[in-house]
Amino acid sequence: MRIISFTKKWNKLNQDEFTTFRFPRKDRDWYVGEIVQVFYKSRSPQREKLGEAEITGKERRYLAQITSKEAKADGFNSLKDMEKWMVKTYGYTETWKPMNKLTLRWVVKGE
């Protein structure tokens, strides 16, 4: 079972269903129906398993296509904040590449 990791305990993780934006994986991209382990800081001594979730939706999106409403649902104060975070985290040129908007639903929460 693969891992989706978060570096912040976003409020969205308290909802039954939430979204996250991820760049496609080079080995094997995420797919609808896949069950994943959800971690907080998976590669850190503060590693914490938050549970397991099923990917219930996947849409190909560019950063320029993301709406302010989606950015807020993803945990940001505004679309501009999301854009700044993406550039800081992935670099300016990466943000021009398509991403996956993944919708996840908790299967097992809080292990």
Detailed description of the structure:
Helix content is 16%, strand content 37%. It is an alpha+beta fold and 111 residues long. The chain has a five-stranded mixed beta sheet with strand order 1-3-4-5-2, with no helix packed on it. β3 (35-40) and β4 form a beta hairpin. The mean pLDDT is 91.
Summarize the structure.
This protein has helices spanning 68-73, 79-90, and strands spanning 3-6, 17-22, 35-40, 48-61, 99-109. By secondary structure, it is of the alpha+beta class. The model has no long low-confidence stretch (mean pLDDT 91).
Strand order of the largest sheet: 1-3-4-5-2
Task: Calculate the mean pLDDT score and round it.
Answer: 91
- What's the CATH class label? Mainly Beta
Could you state the order of secondary-structure elements as H and E?
EEEEHHE
Distance between the termini: 15 Å
Under the CATH scheme, which architecture would be assigned?
Roll
Major sheet summary line: 5 strands, mixed
Radius of gyration (Å) = 14 Å
Structural class: alpha+beta
The name of the CATH superfamily reads Hypothetical protein
Q: State which percent range the strand residues make up.
A: 35-45%
